[in-house]
Amino acid sequence: MNLEKLEVEKLGIEEIKSGIGQGFFSANELIVETYKKIKSEDRKVSAFISLTEDEAIRRAKEIDKLKNYPSMAGVPVVVKDNILIKDTKTTAASRILEYFRAPYNATVIKKMEKAGAIVVGKGNMDEFAMGGSTENSAFFPTKNPLDLSKVPGGSSGGPAAAVAAGMVPVALGSDTGGSIRQPASFCGVVGFKPSYGRVSRHGLMAMSSSLDQIGPFARSVKDARVVFDVIKGSDPKDATSLEIEEKESKKKSFRLGIPKEYFVEGVEDEVVSEVRKVIRKIEKKGIEVEKVSLPHTEYALACYQIIMSCEVSANMARYDGIRYGLEVERPEAESIEETYLKNRGLFGDEVKRRIILGTFALSSGYYEAYYMRAEKVRELIRRDFEEVFEKVDAIVTPTSPILPFNIGEKIEDPLAMYLADMLTVPANLAGLPAISIPCKNEGLPVGLQVMGERFEDENLLTIAEEIEKII
Amino acid sequence: MFKKETIEKIADLARVEMDEKTKDKMKDDLSKVLNYVDKLKEVDVSGVDFKSISPIFNRVREDRVEDVDEVTKEKMRAMGKNKDSYFRVESI
């Protein structure tokens, strides 16, 4: 590749490192070019809620003064707008946080900055990460760069679209039920959700605390791994983050499981046929593939809907429009109750739906029937995976049951929108690492999902790299 | 299935204001969702003890006093009246 010609859309982390290291371009030049690209592309795509240009240029100049370049020196990054960056507008695409500036950095931001990465802006998303199309942003919808009439997926649609449009090589998103993998699938890029517990969520606005996880978008599995290596590790500020002893397996071969429950009614024919094509290619390479069964898969989405809504209703309670810098003119209110009602009336419809469903499912008389039962079903789903992982090293499925859909097509039908998560929620419920890899070069993209054993993220990435080569 | 009064009651408890149109649509949408999640009732969960749901990892640490961190210090600086690490407010 000719590094002397600065084509930002072609640069991966490795190329940026050698480009800067060998003096073909400076971090500052790269950032200036990146903003040119963003400003021309984003007029069509609307991936960004805000840009952090002054700070990015200041950081690039600092990087240029370094003698030794850290692993992500000068790499431009987009960060989903529910991850806190100190003194920077952080809205979660919600009216209730429209003027909020974060008072501290999320742990992942501290780690990325230490590694030399440069945040160029905050990515658009569904409000508080609730949605699968980025149409629930309170500000504007993001468009799919591969076809501007289609949604980019969600909820991390902005970061996914920015990577797909060649504006940045990598981005950070969050994944509660597929919010990294599904937009990666829709935009034809790589999206990785690490195991629950491998990456600190300190500074990520909580949506559903037993499911949320931060992870990277990239144009290759290799780059996703570099970002994961930077952000992983336990953090005293997130008690659910754990120090895991890494045991990268040395074995050369691996076995893949194909669960029949992921190729059922509701999964579009084109998705099934593309994924099957890849599986046949994998088999031809001599990799062992076997049929497996995860019998509780059909209940995963219902289970997820209950657990997620319950946790949402609790986590959203903190947004009362009094804390976190709401500076809009407050509507006249007669009492404190009315103030809360009016301020929280600023939430979008999807956030309200989930608060209502969660509050209902946790209420006295319904708690056992919904929340408690869902938690038990979750345990059965987890056990299904445990059994399958006795036999295989990873599980291969489609990421999304459907191709990217038209903007406006599903927004009036919440249940139809929720069904788009049916193949991604099981990994969140079981805490597993899972990655989406694009498996098609023409037309609308299809993503292939690879799920691994909990905490075996490094092994999963190795397997994903092998599969990526075969595709 | 949801009745409009139920939606209104929950919305009030959750302190979320909604107009009539939103309430009507919410009632229909959530009734569909509730109908869908009812399939959880088909699952035999008799073999699962709620108290033993796994995996749960405990993380323990030494209980020690740490310096007031930078964020707190900044907050203290931003507030005019303070004493040591406490805000000073009018007595009530």
Task: Give structural notes.
- The complex is a heterodimer of chains A (471) and B (92).
- Chain A is α/β, with parallel strands linked by helices and 471 residues long.
- Chain A has 15 helices and 11 strands.
- Chain A has one domain (1-471): Amidase signature (AS) domain (Amidase signature (AS) enzymes, Alpha-Beta Complex).
- Chain A has helices at residues 13-21, 27-45, 53-65, 107-114, 157-164, 181-187, 221-231, 269-284, 300-315, 336-344, 349-361, 368-388, 414-419, 425-430, 457-470; strands spanning 48-51, 76-80, 118-123, 170-175, 190-193, 213-218, 255-259, 288-292, 394-398, 434-438, 447-452.
- In chain A, helix 4 links the parallel strand 2 (76-80) and strand 3.
- The radius of gyration of chain A is 21 Å and the shape is globular.
- Chain B has a domain at 4-42.
- Chain B is 40% helix and 4% strand.
- Chain B has helices at residues 4-13, 20-37, 70-78, and strands spanning 82-83, 86-87.
- In chain B, strand 1 and strand 2 (86-87) form a beta hairpin.
- The longest helix of chain B has 18 residues, at 20-37.
- Chain B is flat.
- In chain B, 12% of the residues are buried.
- The chains are: A alpha/beta (471), B mainly alpha (92).
- Chain A binds chain B through residues 103-104, 197, 234, 236, 239, 242, 296, 298-299, 301-303, 305-306, 313, 320, 337, 340-342, 344-345, 347, 349, 352-353, 355-357, 359-360, 363, 369-370, 372-380, 382, 414-415, 418, 431, 454, and chain B through 6-7, 10-18, 22, 25-26, 29-30, 32-34, 36-43, 45, 48, 50, 53-55, 57, 59, 61, 70-71, 74-75.
